[in-house]
Amino acid sequence: MIFGSFIAGSSPEGSAAVAYPVFTLLLDIKPAVARNFAFAIQSLGMTSASLLIFGLKLKVDWNYIKYVTIGGVFGLIFGTYYVVPLISPPMAKLFFVSLWLSFGIVLWRENSKPTRVVHDLIENLHKSDMFRLLIFGLIGGVISSIFGTGINIFTFCLMTIYYGINEKVAVPSSIIIMSIETILGFFIHAGVVNDFQPEAFEMWIACIPFVIIFAPLGSFVVSKLPRTAIANFLNIILLVQFVGAMWVIKPNAFQLVVCGITLISGLLLFFFLSKNPRT
C-alpha cells in the first residue's frame, strides 16, 4: 500500500489498481474483501491527496470534476446492485488492464508528436460536452463498483485524448473525482449494503498510517514533474499492470481472446477519439 498509495496520489490510477490484483491473485483474498478494502483505504489516502492539491492550489478543471462525479454516483450505485454479482474477477481484471493498455499506447503515440497542443480547461463547454462527461462518469462509476477504482482513469482517457487536457491538470482533477467516488463506495458498503467484512476493516486499520502520508507525497511529487514525465510514468504503470496480470492470472485461450478483442477495441476507440478531437 506504500507503493499503491503513492500511485494513487501521483496518477489517475487509484491504489486499488495495485491492491486489487495483489490481494485477489497473489494473497488469495476474496474479491469482495479486496474491493471493500480499496474503497475504505482510498477514502483516506485519496482524500489526503485531494487536500494537498487544494493546499498547493494546483490547477484543476471543475467542469470535468462536476459532471463526471454526478454520472459516477449513479454508475456506482447501479453497478453495486446490478453488475458486480455478474462479473468474474479474473475476467474483469483482464478486461481492465487490456483496456488501459490500449489507452497507454494511444497516449504515448500522441505525446510522441512534437506538435501536440494541450489545454488547461475544456474551453467553451457545450451541452454535448456535459452529456459526454456524464456518460463517461456513469460508465466509470460502474467500473469503480467492481474494482474500487476506475472512474478516474476511464475519464482521464477522455480528457487527455479527446479534449487534449494537460496531464498536469487532468491528474489532480481525476484524484478529486476518485476521492468523492470512493467515499460514497465506502459508505454504501459499510452503511447501506452492510457487507463490510472484518478482514477488510483489519487491513484498513493497518494501512491507514502509510496511505495518509504516501498518497499526498505522490501528489506533491507529480506537481513538480513536467507533463511528459507524468505521461511516461503513467504508461509504465499501465504496462507493468498488464504484464503483471498476465503473469499472475495465466489466462487460458478464451481469456486471451477476450484480452485481444478488448485491446483492439480500445485501440480503435482511443485512436478514433485522438483523430477526432473536440475543437
Calculate the terminal CA-CA distance, rounded to whole Å. 40 Å
Computed CA radius of gyration, to the nearest angstrom: 17 Å
Shape: globular
How many domain units?
A: 1
**In this structure, how is the largest beta sheet organized?**
none
Explain what this protein looks like in three dimensions.
The protein is globular and about 50 Å long. The protein has 279 residues and is mostly helical. Helix 2 (16-26) runs antiparallel to helix 3 (31-56), helix 4 packs parallel to helix 8 (167-192) and helix 7 (151-162) packs antiparallel against helix 8 (167-192). The longest helix has 26 residues, at 31-56. The protein has 11 helices and no strands. It has helices at residues 2-10, 16-26, 31-56, 62-82, 89-111, 127-147, 151-162, 167-192, 198-223, 227-249, 253-275.
Descriptive keywords:
279 residues; mainly alpha; 79% helix
Briefly, what is this?
By secondary structure, this protein is mainly α.
Task: Give a topology summary.
Layout: H1 2-10, H2 16-26, H3 31-56, H4 62-82, H5 89-111, H6 127-147, H7 151-162, H8 167-192, H9 198-223, H10 227-249, H11 253-275
Helix pairs in contact: 1-2, 1-9, 2-3, 2-10, 3-8, 3-9, 4-6, 4-8, 5-7, 5-10, 5-11, 6-7, 7-8, 7-11
